[in-house]
Design goal:
Helix content: 25-40%
Strand order of the largest sheet: 10-9-8-7-6-3-12-11
Number of strands: 17
Strand content: 15-25%
Oligomer: single chain
Number of helices: 16
Radius of gyration: 27 Å
Shape: globular
Length: 448
């Protein structure tokens, strides 16, 4: 059970220095207990107290870090069963499976596809995270060659899937600095795998045939000094994977059962041979409650929806994505360029700005702070009315950038045009399209 604020307070220096961002140590302790602060914010807490507090206040699902550099990611760290209760903390990792039994040409093609699949959406780069390198050929030489090829040609995080611990040791000499995930410790090889994980400071997958055996294996690995564990229940169909994932999550979150307090890994490709079904299964397991998904292959039409689903599930439901208020220059505008106004909901910004860029018309985009709300929602909440828009335009400095006095407002805010003409004396208020797709044609007809 997580410690209370009073229990945490006993471990703090109680100097009330305020350097943590709150005025007193008691207030800081209450923030820690409520999950609104990090212990690292206190510069004077002792190492002994830090260790005790970190153990006591650790999330029920341990956070496991995998990889280094741009493709490193964290999985786990979850504190709730359902996203609406608070939020999900660390989005799952998505891996591409590559077997050493494939030809070099096929391996190169898979690596190239992994590097190619990246998408920009609402200001974020969506991409897969990991390569799962599996030893199927029975040849240590072939597996080492695959590991070396992947390490040289792709910056992704790595998962080394090899049952031969001697070959796995040699593989780690090639890529240990990438902090790969090791797959997998079983009841039979747990001691040898634990030694490798400790030797190279790598996280380790624990694999067992059922949840009871998995819990026992987790306890054993922890007794051997392994802290960063990922759980594999060996589920071979979607029904079993869902059942196992939910049971593991419930054990960790609701029952505080530490042996199950780790992220889980699923293999949708082992549950079906149909690529579309595999993608469907992956989407379901994204919601319930995969920490890592290993896919047999990637294609744009299956990967992109999965990446968007992941992004949507792992945003904070209580905090809309918002863009910074201000004036954005698109296509190198000048004093005669049109001026479009919209809200700061990120999706609106990126859709509108994208259409403006596609029009090739030089123009200004004015983004008003609506606290991340869309146009209609912000208007209904009184955050996108004539009075607030008028004040924003007057103080923005846009008048100094243009020779004309024409302002294009969203079609869905047309009811504010009359009020805006009163607020902005001398300005002509033009009602733009309701749909972003019509913006390019509208802009091409603009005359200053």
């Amino acid at each position: 059970m997580s410690p209370t604020g009073i229990e945490i307070y006993k471990f703090l220096p109680r100097t009330n220095c305020g350097e943590c961002g709150v005025p007193t140590c008691l207030a800081f302790a209450m923030s820690l207990a409520g999950g609104r602060a990090e212990l690292s914010a206190c510069p004077y807490v002792s190492e002994e107290a830090k260790q005790k507090l970190e153990e006591a206040s650790a999330p029920p699902v341990r956070t496991v870090s995998i990889g280094t550099g741009d493709y490193s990611f964290k999985t786990g760290g979850e504190t709730v069963m359902h996203r609406h209760e608070k939020r999900f903390e660390h989005q799952l990792g998505i891996a591409l499976l590559i077997s050493d039994s494939l030809s070099e040409t096929e391996q190169d093609a898979k690596l190239a596809s992994f590097n190619r699949f990246q998408y920009k959406r609402v200001g974020a780069i969506l991409k897969p995270d990991m390569l799962a390198l599996r030893a199927d050929s029975g040849s240590g030489e072939k597996y080492l060659k695959l590991v070396k090829l992947a390490a040289e040609k792709c910056p992704a995080s790595l998962m080394l899937m090899c049952a031969d611990t001697a070959v796995l040791d040699e593989s780690l000499k090639i890529c240990a600095e990438r902090k790969p995930l090791l797959y997998a410790a079983t009841a039979e090889n747990s001691s040898e795998m634990a030694e490798l994980a400790k030797k190279y400071n790598c996280p380790l997958v624990a694999k067992a045939a059922n949840l009871a055996d998995l819990a026992d294996l987790s306890v054993k690995l922890q007794s051997l000094g392994i802290k960063d564990i990922v759980l594999d229940s060996s589920a071979e169909n979607l029904k079993q994977a869902l059942s196992d994932n939910v049971a593991i999550r419930r054990s960790a979150i609701l029952k505080k059962f530490r042996p199950m307090g780790f992220p889980v890994i699923n293999f949708p490709g082992q549950m079906t041979q149909d690529p579309m079904k595999e993608s469907l299964f992956a989407g379901i397991l994204t919601a319930k409650y995969a920490g890592i998904l290993v896919l047999s292959d990637f294609s744009g039409e299956t990967l992109f929806p999965l990446l968007v689903t992941r992004m949507n599930l792992y945003t904070d439901p209580q905090r809309p994505l918002a863009t910074t208020e201000g004036i954005y220059e698109i296509n190198n505008p000048d004093a005669n360029s049109p001026v479009i106004l919209t809200c700061n909901f990120s999706l609106t910004y990126f859709i509108v700005s994208g259409e403006m860029e596609n029009s090739r018309v030089p123009c200004y985009l004015m983004i008003k702070d609506t606290e991340g709300l869309s146009v209609m929602t912000a208007w209904a909440a009184g955050k996108f009315g004539a009075d607030t828009i008028g004040k924003f335009v007057k103080n923005s400095g846009i008048a100094a950038k243009i020779n004309h006095r024409k302002l294009i407002i969203p079609g869905y805010a047309s009811m504010e045009s009359g009020g805006l003409e009163e607020e902005l004396s001398g300005w002509e208020i033009m009602v733009g399209p309701r749909e972003a797709a019509h913006i390019p044609a509208y802009l091409k007809q603009f005359k200053p």
